[in-house]
Amino acid sequence: MKKAFFLLLISAIIILPVLGQKNYLNESKADKDKRMEWWRDARFGMFIHWGLYSVPAGEWKGTTNHAEWIRTTAQIPLKEYDQFVSRFNPVKFNAEAWVQMAKDAGMKYITITSKHHDGFCLWDSKETDFDVMSTPFKRDILKELADACRKIGGIKLCFYHSIMDWHHPDYSQRREWEKDRPTTGTNRDRYINYMKKQLKELVTNYGDIGVFWFDGEWENFWTHEDGKALYNYVRNLKPDIIVNNRVDKGRGGMAGMTSDGDYGGDFGTPEQEIPETGLPGVDWESCMTMNDHWGYNKADKNFKSTEDLIRKLADIASKGGNFLLNIGPKADGTFPQESIDRLKEIGKWMKANGESIYGTSASPFEHINWGRITQKQTNNTTKLYLHVFDWPKDGKLQLHGLGNDPKHIYILADNKDLEYAKKDNTIDIKTPITAPDKINTVIVVEFNGQPIVYRPPLINAYSDSFIDQVNVSLSLPENGGDAVIRYTSDGTDPVISSALYKNEIILSHSAIIKARSFVKGKAVSGIVERKFEKAEPWIAVDLFKAEPGLNANYYEGEWDKLPDFRAITSKESGIISSISPGKYAGQEKYGVVIQGYLDIPATAMYSFYLNSDDGSALYIDGNKVIDNDGLHGMVEKSGTAPLAAGFHSIRVEFFENTGGDDVQLFIESEKIKRQQVPAKMLVH
Ligand code: H79
Fold first, then answer.
1. What atom in ligand 1 is closest to the CA of residue 68?
2. How far, in whole angstroms, is CA 555 from its chain's centroid?
3. 131 and 115 in contact (C-beta within 8 Å)?
């Protein structure tokens, strides 16, 4: 004992100072809160996707649906792609103008691509010539932005840095179609070192960097161990830096939140989507394009309206998240005019209403039908900010479920007081007949102390359908005051004489649970309900012989939805060990039908998640479980199936038109953590 302790002590004394490396993966909540403070207050940032790909502007040999992925989506050989280096000359680039536009829009940080997947570096890097100094422009873009941020003030500079790299030879994973880049002699440690040295340049030479925003972590090249190590590496370089969850392997698809487990990363990264609800205590940032591409695409005029963007910002803030809104600058160094216009309009709204966004936290209310709510506490008062999207036509806005009285209600933009009356638990606010702001008028409801908010209870259960029985628990949301829960299971509305909830409800028959909060014998919330259905498990089949893998049949053709594959002759077939595009990966205009059996370990309700770009469908035992058809980017759809233990026939149909191509299937049950359907479950 003593000896072991002594050895431990000695090694700690010797090794720790030598390496000087601290483990930040078990940081205390207090330390993290301190580090995240500026970021949580900021709520709104600008994403910038800029690089060589702005030169082709989305067009390659007549196809126009490309952007920052163009090298892969148009399958451009490296030698040809490298020629953009001599054509990158953004003479109109003006760092101060960019920073000023972000600031005037009400944004608090800029996250720019120091390096995207193509591997091109926007700064003067000692580690590579594939950087801006090799272009005719020869100016360190990140340096100029860093200087501009310092000069103008109020904007933190952050870097997006791709782990995946389609240029560096030692990033040894290749695109399927890339036959001219052999991987012999590659060395993954050398690549990781390259990345580390570059990250060191970025934190050392560009002022006070706020965030490292990693991406491209999903390929097999990158491991969970790599993720944890890189997280610690950059935290050791700059202890107060904030790092997104894509540094490690914990993110769940495009929904972007980190799965349970010991993963590195400080915030979740939903991409092109806004979560249904926020999660208490979880930091996240939705990143989104203004049109349909991240990098500049000259043909893409599908810009979201200013109304949509302002409401998305309020929606995100009302759920406790940040909004990272993207700009794809042009090859001449200017922003697209459509983006400039929208930034200006958002800025106008933010100037009058920013207080309802910055430093706010998630709404204490459930769904509100006229808009969203954010809140902020200062000293002894709490302000609720009502973001009214749908202005009341009858001059009366209602807020339900309040246990105490406000002290003051007014319109944020002009400080105009509004009259109100409170009866039972509802406030009626007298509103002008026309909306002061057609997009989003913010009304402030101010309280001494905190508002008491009575919300409907939560109905918690693993899933809505079950095989033998389901355990249902009811709970009150936070700050529910002195409310109790009453419920019914016979379809009637809960009243004061309905059952008082005490213990978990165990259902063994189909039923509708309805629940409601009560205070002092009076209903104080709306009613929530959830329907639970008992299902018969689909019976398993006997297999005489089961070989590993599934049969894949490959088809060629151009479709915009799944064709009737049974009516077409397949070009090729083979066995694959996962649901994937198989040997056609990276190609265009093809379809794959994957068939065989799922070896289900135990009788249970299973959830499936089918991700694909473009369309796909999942059939189990001949039933269509998921329809994810149509032309689209990576989209996830889900479905459930009650399955008896044993073999079940599975069929996945998938097609790819142009652009990115992928198909993946995830499985989950009460007992099995969400995961890609493992090879051991797939047989034929
Ligand atoms: O930089 C922009 C895009 O170029 C980049 N992220 C934003 C911020 C991006 N890279 N890839 N994609 C977007 C789409 C990739 C989706 C997938 Fe996956 C990768 C599908 C399957 C692997 C991630 C991991 C989503 C599902 C599993």
1. 4
2. 33
3. no
Nearest residue CA, atom 21 of ligand 1?
A: 662
Query: What is the tens place of the pLDDT at every residue in 501-557?
Result: 999 999 999 999 999 999 888 888 878 999 999 999 999 999 999 999 999 999 999
pLDDT digits (tens, 9 = 90+) for 253-290: 788 998 777 899 999 999 999 999 888 889 999 999 99
Record the tokens describing residue 275, joined without a space: 């979560």
Centroid of ligand 1 to alpha carbon of 256 (angstroms):
10
The closest alpha carbon to 227, from 174, 266, 185, belongs to 266
Which residue minimizes the CA distance to atom 26 of ligand 1? 253
Whole-angstrom Cα distance, residue 678 to residue 599? 10
Sign of CA dihedral 242, 246, 252, 255: positive
Positions in the chain short of pLDDT 50 = 1-3, 13-18
Which residue CA neighbors atom 6 of ligand 1 most closely? Answer: 215
| Domain 550-683: top CATH class | mainly beta
Rg (CA), the chain: 28
CATH code, 458-534: 2.60.40
Contact criterion met (CB below 8 Å) for 535 and 507: no
Q: Give the CA angle between residues 581, 585, 587 to the nearest 5°.
A: 125
Domain boundaries in the chain?
Answer: 63-356, 371-448, 458-534, 550-683
pLDDT of residue 1: 38
Give the H or E element holding residue 410. Answer: strand 408-411
Residue ranges with strand state E in 601-684: 604-613, 616-620, 623-628, 635-643, 646-656, 662-668, 675-676, 682-683
Q: Look at ligand 1, atom 14, and give the residue with the nearest C-alpha.
A: 634
Q: What is the pLDDT of residues 91-128, one digit of tens each?
A: 999 999 999 999 999 999 999 999 999 999 999 999 99
3-state DSSP assignment of residue 284: strand
Contacts of 244 (CB under 8 A, 6+ apart): 211, 212, 213, 214, 265, 266, 267, 269, 285
Question: By three-state DSSP, how is residue 338 classified?
Answer: helix
The first and second tokens of residue 399, run together, are: 């807020």
Residues 6+ apart with CB under 8 A from 575: 547, 549, 550, 551, 552, 684
| Superfamily of the domain at 63-356 | Glycosidases (3.20.20.80)
Check if 458-534 and 550-683 are the same fold.
Answer: no
Residues lining ligand 1, Cβ inside 6 A = 49, 68-69, 215, 218, 253-254, 271, 287, 294, 611, 634, 662
Tell me whether strands 242-243 and 209-215 are parallel, antiparallel or unpaired.
Answer: parallel
Cβ–Cβ under 8 Å, residues 656 and 560: no
**pTM listed for this prediction:** 0.78
Q: Whose CA is nearest to atom 19 of ligand 1?
A: 218
User: What kind of architecture, by CATH, is found in domain 371-448?
Assistant: Sandwich (2.60)
